[in-house]
Structure formats: structure tokens, C-alpha cells
Amino acid sequence: xxxxxxxxxxxxxxxxxxxxxxxxxxxxxxxxxxxxxxxxxxxxxxxxxxxxxxxxxxxxxxxxxxxxxxxxxxxxxxxxxxxxxxxxxxxxxxxxxxxxxxxxxxxxxxxxxxxxxxxxxxxxxxxxxxxxxxxxxxxxxxxxxxxxxxxxxxxxxxxxxxxxxxxxxxxxxxxxxxxxxxxxxxxxxxxxxxxxxxxxx
Length: 201
Description:
single chain, alpha/beta, 7 helices, 7 strands, about 25% strand, globular
């Protein structure tokens, strides 16, 4: 079983079609938002490990969890030297979202750490550049169930090799693949074909 990239989980939570375009069709395009995000991660990832107030900050931590079937690179893992506790920290370009896209990705990171180290990871944090605010995230049973469900759905999507049809919505404005996806154009084409078939035209 080939490992799924951790980034695919957030792509799927944002839009299953985007996930398939990126991870099955290898389509990618950059816009201002993705360029900002890439620059942020490059700054974070380039930092050296350091220890402050009894906490070791490890950057660009590579993980691979065979049972979960996930692999990827974590922005940062905070290691409490006294207790041994681990806390994943993910850096985001924007601001907190109403949907749990970011929380699911962070929870998956924690579950990878748990599989690799054998220890429980109870919480992590999301840091948002737009608000310059750190948001703690508790890995509740509910969030874990939600995360496992997304992992299963992403596996099914990528194994199928099928790219879902477009569903135009507000999120499309922020998507760097909107020109490749062309959701409005494809939706119009599908509806026209449906009407033609309905009336035998």
C-alpha cells in the first residue's frame, strides 16, 4: 500500500476534485496565496533546531506511518524535554477557518507521531500568519474519527483514479487550480447536456 501524502488530506477536505487534480493528475498552478504559503513554509523549514525553556523545537520533521498509510513533512514538533511529550505545530498563511480542514491535517500528523513513537499525542497547535495568532488543538475522539474517515475517503479517491466533477462555490476563488479546473464552464456544459438529453435534442 502506497503512503498518502499528509497534504492530500487537507486538499481533500477543501475540495475532493482539487485533491484528485493534484495527486492523481499531477496538476499544479501557483497563485498569490500559494506563493505566500510556500514562502512562509520555506522560512519555517529553514530554521535550525533549538531549545528554549525546556522545549526542543524540531523543524521539517519527516514522518511515515505504515499502518495509517501516511507520510509527509511536519512544519515543527515541540518536544518537552522533561516529560517527553510531543506537540505538532502547523504554520498556515491565512486565518482560522469555520471548517476543520487544518485540524484534520494536524490530527493526522499527531497520529503519525503516535504510530512512530508509541506515545500518546494529546494536543497540537496551528499558527496563522494573517492573524499572527496560535490556536491550540486538542485531538479529541471526535476529531480522530473524522480524520480517519478523511484518510479512508482520500485512499478510495486516489485508488479509483477518478477525478470528481466540479462543484462551483465560494472556495473556488481561493483555489490556484481554478483555471485548470474551470468549474463554471464545466458545470454549464454538464447542465446543457442534461437538458438536451431530457428533451431529446
